[in-house]
Design goal:
The chain has 171 residues and is of the alpha+beta class. The chain has helices at 3-17, 78-81, 97-114, 139-145; strands at residues 37-48, 54-62, 83-89, 117-121, 124-137. It contains 4 helices and 5 strands.
């Protein structure tokens, strides 16, 4: 994509997203150029590593594909659609490890939002900003990241209700 195209893509995205989240801090930042603000999602996934042991993968993913708005943000190789933050083996993410990693990733993204990331493009300096707008991932990640007690490996299955196996409102 040419510069004009990606700038227009970001401008269009942010003008439309305003109707979804008008309270987003970005809309209060008059000094930010929305044509260089990249919407991202925090992403977590519990996968399998060596010897089929669990690993937690934390990454960020741009909402808009690097190929442009006509493509999904998952098209192409994951190296081009995800920004890897860390990979942690299961034996290390007991207690509050995931909380600390999420705090560190949030601090890094906060800096990339408020301070920006300066790059030189076509002989001029641009400041890009990462703007987190959502969190996504598989259930093991979401359960750990949000400290939910419900899940498929305990009696309480649903985080939205009190239904549990063996109760009168079992699901």
């Amino acid at each position: 994509m040419q510069e004009r195209e990606w700038r227009d893509t970001f401008r269009t995205f942010w003008s439309r997203f305003y109707f979804v989240r008008p309270d987003l801090d970005l809309y209060q930042q008059s000094s930010f150029d929305v044509s260089t603000c990249i919407p991202i999602a925090f992403h977590g996934d519990e996968g399998r590593g060596k010897l089929r042991r669990a690993i937690m993968i934390l990454s960020m993913q741009p909402i808009i594909s690097h190929k442009g708005p006509k493509y999904t943000n998952m098209s192409g190789h994951s190296f081009t659609s995800r920004l890897l933050y860390t990979v942690v083996p299961a034996q290390m993410y007991a207690s509050n490890t995931i909380d600390k990693l999420n705090e560190a990733m949030a601090a890094d993204v906060r800096s990339a939002y408020f301070d920006g990331i300066s790059v030189t493009h076509a002989g001029k300096e641009l400041t890009f900003r990462l703007v987190p707008i959502m969190i996504k991932g598989d259930w093991p990640f979401l359960r750990l990241a949000m400290s939910l007690s419900a899940g498929y490996n305990c009696n309480r299955k649903c985080h939205l209700c009190e239904g549990q196996v063996g109760s009168s409102i079992a699901i």
